[in-house]
Design a protein that fits this description.
Order of helices and strands: EEHHEHHHEEHEEEEEEEEHHEEH
Largest sheet: 8 strands, antiparallel
Distance between the termini: 25 Å
Number of strands: 15
CATH topology of the largest domain: T-fold
Length: 292
Amino acid sequence: MITVGVQTWRTDLLLSVRHRPNAALEADLQRLLTAEVSRLERLVSRFRSDSELTAVNAAAGRWVEVSWGFVTVLTAALDAAQSTAGLVDPTMGRAIKAAGYDEWAGQRTPTNPGVHRGKWRQVGIRPGRRQAQVQIPAGTELDLGSVAKGWLADRIARTVHRSGHEVCANMGGDIRVIAAQPWTVWSDPGIPGDTGAPVDLVDAAMATSGIGRRAWTGGHHIIDPRTGYPAQTPWWSVTAVAATAADANAAATAGVILGDRGPAWMTRQGIDARFVSRDQTLTTGRWKQAVA
């Protein structure tokens, strides 16, 4: 096994392949991971003045020239909104800041308190003079953090697999596996006393969303777009299994936001999921069979 890593976004990003020790391959994997993380930051970081997302947010209400790479990430976020009926909404950037996320992250980007509701259906994408153009509704800001790590896990896993390797890309808990033989990964509920649960993946993904790792006095980073405030939920974390890491992340985040109705929603969607609170653990779909 060869594993390389990058520590950023207050988490560990890991890339592993099934291969005997090989210094050249390890160096190639490290360069790939580092380059892809840097590229994603230039596209969608809210904390970089030179990112494409910052330019889009600064021009809310107007069309802005962007790269097709940015459109790819934005489209994944809009797909997540569509699949969750708007529960995972990329236009909640102001609400996240108002809730205190940026202060927790050590960034000086204050936003006036108040209700900021999502308007993902009003996001526009069209061909531009050189590449593409994007327009977001006036008075909103994008935050693509919810989908970005899952999108990155999917992209890197596909890239490495095209080179002929069995691969596991773990982008801070958003995990994508493409392998010939099952690859065992573990959920990370992030709650004391719960060691998580194993799942065997071949060409599939697992992601965990929760309120424990990015939380502060009076709030956390998962916003309910129906209210504009941090979700009121009994779940410390929700883990979901899906075809892609972006899909798994969207489902897990929706499960957190839905609270007590989350398990029933997962069941209707046919998604294998694990809900963890301080006093109980619930599972849906084939999860129990998978961990047995």
